[in-house]
Amino acid sequence: MVRGKVQMKRIENATSRQVTFSKRRNGLMKKAYELSVLCDAEVAVVIFSQRGRLYEFSSSSMQKTIDRYRECARETLTNNSIQAQQQIQYLKEETENMAKKIEVLEVSRRKLTGQSLGSCSMNELQQIDSQLERSLKNIRARKSQLFEDEIERLKAKKNLLLEENARLSEKCGQMSREPALAPPDPLIQQQEKGNCSLSIKNSEVETDLFIGLRS
């Protein structure tokens, strides 16, 4: 029979909970013993039941194992504390270096805008002048590039308009070259007019209207 998967939640039934506790406690103790024997490991297990009853297993001495654990935990805590202090010190140094860099950049910005130049030496002024010249050169180059891009865009737009204009002109030319309707022939018109008059005369019927008795 396949064993169903156990849901990891508190067992509400007290009897079932106690039975499960006893089975799993014995299984855990057995696994701890096997681990200590097979792997020559120092193993200690401490279990308190719901009612506060103590169950324990130790491959050697429980107190010796507890003391060893406390010593390792103290060393781990000390190492973690040292690492935390080192990390804090590193962050402080990084913060100070960043603040110094920001201060240097702020002084440089003021000098580039013509402020705080009273304490500048001739060499510093020459460096500022060279930096400004380089900045202006870059600005002019960027401006020229933008102008060239705009000119190319306008040229492309002009070519599109010229092509559209040529297409429309060709279309209008084709429409003007189409043959017009020929004017009617005067002889044919005269003949058709005579035939129409003859038809009207033939269709006329003389009628006399008489009211009264004929003699």
From TrEMBL:
Keywords from the UniProt entry: Coiled coil, DNA-binding, Nucleus, Transcription, Transcription regulation
Pfam families on file: K-box (PF01486), SRF-TF (PF00319)
Source species, domain of life: Eukaryota
PROSITE patterns: K_BOX, MADS_BOX_1, MADS_BOX_2
Main location class: nucleus
GO molecular function terms listed in the Swiss-Prot or TrEMBL record: DNA-binding transcription factor activity; protein dimerization activity; RNA polymerase II transcription regulatory region sequence-specific DNA binding
Compartment(s): Nucleus
BP terms from Gene Ontology: positive regulation of transcription by RNA polymerase II
K-box domain boundaries: 88-178
Domain MADS-box: start-end pairs: 1-61
Coiled-coil zones: 122-171
Matching InterPro entries: MADS-box/MEF2_TF, MEF2-like_N, TF_Kbox, TF_MADSbox, TF_MADSbox_sf
GO cellular component assignments: nucleus
PANTHER family given in the database record: SERUM RESPONSE FACTOR HOMOLOG (PTHR48019)
Protein name, as recorded: MADS box transcription factor 22
